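Researcher: Here's a chain I'd like modeled. Treat it as a single chain, no partners, no ligands.
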Amino acid sequence: MSDTPLTTEQILEKAEDVLRRYGPAKATVVDVARALQISHGSVYRHFPSKAALRDAVTRRWLERISTPLAAIAARHVPALERLRDWLHLLIHAKRHLAQEDPELFASYVKLSAEAREVIGEHVTTLVDQLSQIIADGVQEGVFETLSIPATARAVFDATARFHNPVHVQEWSDPTIDTAYANVWTLILRGLTPHT
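Model: Modeled as a single isolated chain. C-alpha cells:
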C-alpha cells in the first residue's frame, strides 16, 4: 500500500471486495487487511471489531439506497409524483443491486440479519422520508390520513414484498409488476381524501 494514510472508505471498499469473494461466513478482518496489504491492527484502528466493520459496510450499502431517496423526498414537485417516484426508485434500486451483483447482494442480506440496529436506523430513515412526502400531500389536499407516521409505516410495510431483500426470490416472478401495480392502486385509494 502507498504511504498515504489509510482511510475508512478504502477499508470499506476492500471489505466489499472480500465479502464478494468469500461471503460473510468466511470473510475476516485479516482477509480485508491482507487485501489492503496492511496489518489487521490497522483495520482495528478504524473499526474496533469485526461486527463494527460489518455494520459499517452494511450502513454504507444502505446509504446508497437512502441518499437518492432523500433527494426525491425533498424535491419541489407534487407529493403524489414524489411518492410514486420514491417507491419506484426503492424497488428498482434493490432489484438492480440483486441482479447486478448477486454475490454481494446475498452477502448484504446475511449481514443485514446481524446488523439489526443498522437496519432499524435505515427503516426509520425511509419511513421518515415517506412521512415527509405524505405530510406534504396532506397539506396539498391530495392525501388524507389520521396519522402521518402510521400511514408512512403502513405504506412501507405494504410494499415490503417489492423491496425487502428477504423477498428477492419473488422479484423474478413475471407477475411482480402487476402485483405492485395492484398494491399501488390500494395505497392511492387509502390516501385519497374521502368526500
